[in-house]
TrEMBL record:
SUPFAM superfamilies: Radical SAM enzymes (SSF102114). Signal peptide: none annotated. InterPro entries: Aldolase_TIM, Radical_SAM_PqqE_MftC-like, rSAM_sf. The lineage of its organism: Bacteria, Thermotogati, Thermotogota, Thermotogae, Petrotogales. This is Radical SAM protein. It comes from the Bacteria. Coiled coil: none annotated.
Amino acid sequence: MKERFFKLNKWNILVENDKAKEAAIYNLYNGDIIELDEDWAKVIHYLQTGELISKVDHPKTPEIIQTLSDKSIGKCYDKLIYEEKTRKGMLLPLKGIQSPPPVINRFFIQLPTNCNLNCSFCNSLNSIPCLTCSNEKSEKNVEHFDYRRFLPRILDLKPINLILHGGNPFLLGNKLNNLVNQCKYLSESTQIWVVTHWKHLFSKIKENKRNLTENLNCYIVIPASNFNEDEDNSKKFCYTLDYVKNRLQSFVPVIVLDSDNNIERLREEIMKFNPQGLYVSHIYRKSNFREFNNSHFVRVNVETFWHNFYHHPCLYGTLALTSNGKILPCPHMKKEILADVMNDSEPFERIFGDREIDKYWNLNLGKIEKCKECIFRYGCFECRAVELKLTNDLLGKFLCSKVGH
Ligand code: SF4
Ligand code: SF4
Ligand code: SF4
């Protein structure tokens, strides 16, 4: 009988953890991550190293080869081949030559606005802190140095999304519209978002519909506790979503689990208004930390795999300006100050010219001690700011059931 070899095809990548005897196949064609049991991991490991099929001494070898061939995940060859895995873009990040211009996916700007709603979860640790509002007062704020002077510098970077957040952003009155319109004027392609509680939005719409610019997109914060059999709230809420759906560019609801309410009905109600997405934010408490997972698996295509291979899944492409003029790698990493626009005349020069941002943008999960061997690290989305707050360590990891709390 002719000696043959078996190899996974170029869309399928084997990721192994030798110590734990674990492995997974990332199918970059359909986005699946296939976790392998110990037998499969062992057999596929030997086949991938170029061993002849006949030399892989395991009773399951024929079955494994047949299954993978049937699913077009790999195939048999008469001679040993090397198949370069599918990539997009550059083979390796550029080093030693001029870097390409940075691509900013999200630029957060904190507005100097307070809020009087007194939500019980305000300023508490939750699973998507940057998409929920919080009420922080600062003595100095960016109005001291004038937003308008600094905005062109930010918009010069052509961020894909610019996200305004703070307490109640509508307390800025007409200044908010001016700010949004100015941003749109400076970079037409940038999507402008505001993070706001649905009640603030409702009040704004009731006050004067025309006061809300149509250039806006909204992340709408929706505490589950607001709908404890409260019919009046439900009506106001539907009125708000109906307005937003018809008048604004787009909206994404963020349900905050601040009560034990079943949110299924709420979710169904929201979906009738055709939102662009929907997030559920969990509140972290010492009593619930075992259920509070900070690792979310996403479908992994070619872009996601190689993005996560080199970069942090969330921090890459993110920057934030606080209401007292500090530039941060993320709006909730308050102590990681990259520049202070009050004192620094060329903040972006330092951040990008000296590549200070790489410490955060290139913080792929392979650099996190507890994640570095994990077979899911190329398909895992985590919030680094939450881990930093809990461990006081930029490379710390506390919230993941895979590594144990
Ligand atoms: S609406 Fe937002 S900022 Fe205001 S109290 Fe509630 S969580 Fe805090
Ligand atoms: S160990 Fe790290 S990479 Fe693996 S699932 Fe947990 S958070 Fe994600
Ligand atoms: S790490 Fe990402 S998800 Fe977490 S707060 Fe920062 S930007 Fe948001």
